[in-house]
């Protein structure tokens, strides 16, 4: 079985999942990302991504979504198990987004994920 695949049960998809996350939440904040997280009682992590229109045009919003999914997909074992995590990119990232690459985004994500707990 391919472990680098992003399975459906590893994604936050339902409205009630997002509502539950916002009702009882923890936050981890950096200058580029806000993470909203909550324990989910499962043996794996589930992720969601919310990019506001203020971030920029659609192609930039889609690109940052792809980068976040790719970072999670390739580094699942480095994320804390048993959490629902919502990634919200901040305006500061959109200002410098054209000048960053995948590895820069990966470092930014791990800096903020390290603040969970």
Strand element count: 4
How many angstroms does the end-to-end distance come to? 30 Å
Question: Which structural class do you get from the secondary structure elements?
Answer: alpha+beta
**What is the CATH third-level topology name?**
Ribosomal Protein S5, domain 2
How would you describe the oligomerization state of the chains in this entry? single chain
Share in helix:
25-40%
Proportion in β-strands: 15-25%
**How many domains comprise the coordinates?**
1
Shape: globular
| Adjacency order of strands in the biggest sheet | 1-2-4-3
- The count of helical stretches stands at 4
**CATH class term:** Alpha Beta
Major sheet description: 4 strands, mixed
Radius of gyration: 14 Å
CATH architecture: 2-Layer Sandwich
Low-confidence region ranges: none
- SSE series: HEEEHEHH
Q: Report the average pLDDT across residues.
A: 91
């Amino acid at each position: 079985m391919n472990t680098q695949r992003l399975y459906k049960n590893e994604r936050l998809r339902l409205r009630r999942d997002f509502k539950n996350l916002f009702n009882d939440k923890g936050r981890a904040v950096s200058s580029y990302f806000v993470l909203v997280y909550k324990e989910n009682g499962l043996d794996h992590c589930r992720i969601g991504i919310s990019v506001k229109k203020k971030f920029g045009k659609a192609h930039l919003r889609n690109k940052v979504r792809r980068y976040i999914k790719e970072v999670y997909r390739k580094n699942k074992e480095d994320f804390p198990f048993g959490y629902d995590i919502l990634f919200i990119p901040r305006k500061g990232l959109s200002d410098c987004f054209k000048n960053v690459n995948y590895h820069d985004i990966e470092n930014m994500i791990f800096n903020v994920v390290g603040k969970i707990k």
